[in-house]
Amino acid sequence: MNLTEAMEARHSVRRYLDKPIEPEKAEALQKEIEKINAESGLHIQLICNEPKAFSGPLAHYGSFIGCKNYFVLAGPKNMAEAAGYYGEKIVLFSQQLGLNTCWVALTYNKGKVPAQIRKGEKIHIVIALGYGETQGTPHKSKPMETLCKVSGEMPEWFKNAMTAALNAPTAVNQQKFLFTLKDNDTVEAKAFLGPCSKIDLGIVKCHFEIGAGDHPFKWA
Question: Do residues 35 and 83 lie in contact, with contact meaning Cβ atoms separated by under 8 Å?
Answer without folding.
Answer: no
